[in-house]
């Protein structure tokens, strides 16, 4: 009888740890808003200041085109650097006013070399991340969707 209770006690003690897992952390498939194709996989991590960043871990080509492995259109130190290993999202932090929303990010579009401000919202029980990015001073922006693996 006591041996049957041990797994239940173990499960009950660890349930809060499972529930507290950060849903933003992990591997995401990026979906290009212009083509609808997945162009890269990224890993989102969190630093000691509780800010999130996303690093490219793999790239894919749009069907019928060659994969873009180098950031040709980037400027500064990222010009002509490999895309794999490049950080494309930085400074994103939890919005204290809205659960599952994140603000204050800076995003690099490696395909255009443009930089945007970014905010994000977890959707569909944490399976999708909707990112709204906007160039400084622009009236409209882009909506990107990332899908969690």
Automatic annotation (TrEMBL):
The answer to whether keyword Heme applies is no
- Residue ranges of every copy of the DUF2147 domain listed in the record: 26-147
Keyword Signal, does the record have it? yes
What InterPro entries does this protein's entry cite?
DUF2147
Q: Which residues form the signal peptide?
A: 1-19
Q: Which UniProt keywords apply?
A: Signal
Q: What is this protein called?
A: DUF2147 domain-containing protein
């Amino acid at each position: 009888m006591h041996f049957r209770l041990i797994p239940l006690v173990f499960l009950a003690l660890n349930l809060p740890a499972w529930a507290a897992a950060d849903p933003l952390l992990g591997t995401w498939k990026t979906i290009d808003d212009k083509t609808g194709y997945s162009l890269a996989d990224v890993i989102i991590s969190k630093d000691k200041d509780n800010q999130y960043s996303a690093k490219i871990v793999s790239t894919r080509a749009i069907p019928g085109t060659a994969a873009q492995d180098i950031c040709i259109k980037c400027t500064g130190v990222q010009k002509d650097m490999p895309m794999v290993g490049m950080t494309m999202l930085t400074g994103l932090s939890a919005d204290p006013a809205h659960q599952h929303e994140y603000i204050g990010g800076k995003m690099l579009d490696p395909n255009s070399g443009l930089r945007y401000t970014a905010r994000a919202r977890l959707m569909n029980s944490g399976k999708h991340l909707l990112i709204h990015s906007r160039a400084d001073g622009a009236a409209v922006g882009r909506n990107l969707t990332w899908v969690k693996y």
